[in-house]
Design goal:
The protein has one domain (3-239). It has 244 residues and is mostly helical. The protein contains ten helices and no strands.
Length: 244
């Protein structure tokens, strides 16, 4: 079997595993959409709030489906000895991790598309003004948070601690990065912290693509910050990865 065919079969297998795990499907896929409906319904009559919320939820969905999902999943696979056993099988390592990462990427892409469609059809938010910028910042966010999720899994001591470790990062980051409200209203210290983290810049890029029409060239600072985190995450993920 060719490498491409092996990768495709592994990806299909990972997709089946994902949907057969109710908790993973809920927290990594359904919860962002549920939050979108709940919060957007409160501000349905305020277009300015919706223009903040739709890109914010899209950015949160990218982080949830990559960073959080991969950190949880890899910790579980490592602690259960599954990674060690997979290392000893004939399945090529690129095909295994390609399927694992591909499933997370598919979730992120579907999430962003659904959020944009729901924003337009249900709440009247305009279609993205710059689809190319939307695609670029979604891809950058997926790469960045995917790498950081794999790297962070190496710091989690066991699966029982995974929820605490992941939420200790995920929850504060989404609240200071402008997911539910404009980060410009934060105190100066928290705004500075948010500026140093990648999620705020992913949201800024998505907001430009969806709301203002700002292209990639207009958000080069955000691109550089996200890329820097992606490089750091990739290095840490490779340097400290453990099979067992």
């Amino acid at each position: 079997m060719s490498s491409a065919a092996t990768l495709w079969r592994q990806l299909r297998f990972e997709r089946r595993l994902f949907w057969r795990n109710p908790s993973a499907a809920f927290f990594n896929f359904i919860l962002p959409l549920l939050l979108l409906f709940l919060v957007a319904s409160v501000f349905a009559s305020d277009p300015e709030e919706l223009d903040v919320l739709i890109p914010g939820i899209a950015g949160m969905a990218v982080m949830a489906t990559t960073f959080s999902a991969l950190a949880f999943n890899l910790t579980f696979l490592r602690e259960q000895g599954i990674l060690k056993r997979m290392r000893g099988t004939p399945l090529p390592v690129p095909a295994y991790f390609g399927g694992l990462l591909g499933s997370a990427v598919a979730n992120a892409l579907v999430q962003v598309v659904l959020i944009v469609v729901i924003g337009n059809v249900v709440y009247g938010v305009d279609w993205p003004r710059d689809p190319l910028s939307l695609a670029v910042f979604t891809a950058l966010g997926v790469v960045c948070f995917g790498a950081l999720g794999i790297a962070f899994a190496n710091a989690i001591p066991n699966f029982d601690a995974a929820a605490a470790y992941v939420n200790l990062v995920f929850l504060p980051v989404i609240f200071i990065s402008g997911v539910f409200y404009s980060a410009d209203s934060l105190p100066a210290f928290l705004e500075g912290v948010a500026q140093a983290l990648p999620l705020k810049h992913v949201i800024e890029g998505l907001s430009g693509a969806i709301v203002t029409g700002a292209g990639v060239a207009d958000n080069l600072g955000a691109v550089l910050v996200i890329a820097a985190w992606a490089v750091a995450g990739t290095y840490l993920a490779i340097r400290y990865f453990r099979w067992e």
